[in-house]
Amino acid sequence: MRRGFFKGIGVNILLLGMVSLLADISSEMMMPLLPMFIAALGGSALVIGLVGGFGDSITSLLQVFSGYWSDRYGRKKPFVFSGYAISAIAKLFLAISTIWQHVFITRSLDRAGKGLRTAPRDAIIADSTLTEVRGTAFGIHRAMDTAGAIVGSLLAFLLFWFLGLEFRAILLISAVIAFLALLPILRVREVKREPQKIGLGISFKALPRNLKWFVLIASIFALGNFTYMFFILRAQDFFTGVVSERAAAAIPILLYVLYNVVYALLSVPAGMLSDRIGRRRVLLLGYLLFGLTCLGFALLESLVFFIILFALYGLVYALVEGTQRAFVSDLASAELRGTALGTLHTCIGLAALPASLIAGTLWQHIDPAATFLYGCVLGLIAAAALLRIHIR
Asked: What is the Cα–Cα distance from 331 to 208, expressed in whole angstroms?
């Protein structure tokens, strides 16, 4: 049973999973603190949307170019290493930010590193596995990635609540861990491919029609999938005035830990489910569930409801994140897989900035509930589009 489970799963998956494990310990020590850190530096809800959305857009805008460049030059590992190194350096400067504009710059640099590495890394994962277990391979990688997220966010809570460290000290520790993530990359062996002498425009035209349709649908979903920071702020706003100020900051961190636990535990089963019943069905479930989860955040307020909703938020990401990448890998040829994955990430990222700016505007000028109703509507529209357009 165990041998069969790992059949077709190369050592690269475990090495890149270890890289993501360490990198996410670093990142997730920062992420649950970031919206509160920005607010402490004077940033409004609109600023938080700008920081989150612009960072995600930078990430994805770079991914299509890094994917294209890695296909063109036949090398992916240098892009992966450079991307993780840039993010580690950015985290050092984030720790010494004194105004929200500093956070905006360093967060953008951190996300630029992510944009440089992600598509080539995902292409290495796809190249290192057999087609029939590719969903499982991506699920394993996402599980290790999210296991790091659990450790990181839980470590942030322990350092904040039990040791009494301030935000800056925790951010500095996270930067040190980010540099450790560079070490396993040195052992990765990528599949050698001939450089692809293609123009960027030609490579886009060469992408299959089904893939283009799916990227459009994924972009609609991304337009409603605003930054996670608003989910944390929703919980913090509810608990502020109900418990102590420090507890009002600590409880959202724990809820974020719960989100990551669910995400990690269900990523591999979700990937295996997509191998078994098809990527489209799993994504349809994920898009529908996101809409319902946002509806819950808009209408429900209590500790019990927040526990349920953050768990559902983790399930959504388990169903969607790895499955979208595996679906694109299935729909693209091996020679253009980096470009295809980069195209997916870039289109999603271009939607991330308006998504978070709209969410911040609704939060600041109308009502926090309006932010989540907006996400609900876009999630259901994406599900309806995926249901009507038959992609195989």
From this structure: 7
What is the rounded CA–CA span in Å between residue 134 and residue 268? 11
* β-bridge mates for residue 129, sequence order: 9
CB-CB contact of 53 with 222 (8 Å): no
If you ran DSSP here, which 8-state letter would residue 243 be given? B
* Distance of alpha carbon 225 from the chain centroid: 11
3-state secondary structure of 60: helix
What is the set of domains in the chain, with CATH numbers?
Answer: 2-388 (1.20.1250.20)
How many helices (H) and strands (E) in the chain?
Answer: 16, 0
Instruction: Give the pLDDT score at 202.
Output: 44
Tokens describing residue 27: 């990142």
Give Dmax over CA atoms of the chain in angstroms.
Answer: 62
Q: Could you give the 3-state DSSP secondary structure of residue 9?
A: strand
Residue numbers of the chain with a pLDDT score lower than 50: 1-5, 201-202
The helix/strand/coil state of 129 is: strand
Whole-number Å distance between alpha carbons of 356 and 346: 16
Give me the phi and psi of 9, to 5 degrees please: -100, 110
Tokens 């983790």 correspond to what residue?
314
In this predicted structure, what is the pLDDT of residue 5? 42
Q: Measured in whole angstroms, how far is the alpha carbon of residue 119 from the centre of its chain?
A: 13
pLDDT at position 4 is: 40
How much is the pLDDT for 176? Answer: 95
CB 306 within 8 A of CB 242: no
Give the separation between CA 331 and CA 57, rounded to whole angstroms.
24
CA dihedral 332, 333, 338, 339 (to 10 degrees): -70
Task: Give the closest residue to 60 by CA, choosing from 118, 115, 117.
Answer: 115
Q: How far apart are CA 244 and CA 28, in angstroms?
A: 24
CA distance 173 to 64: 31
Rounded Cα–Cα distance for residues 178 and 81 (Å)? 12
Task: Give the Cα separation of 91 and 28 in Å (integer).
Answer: 12
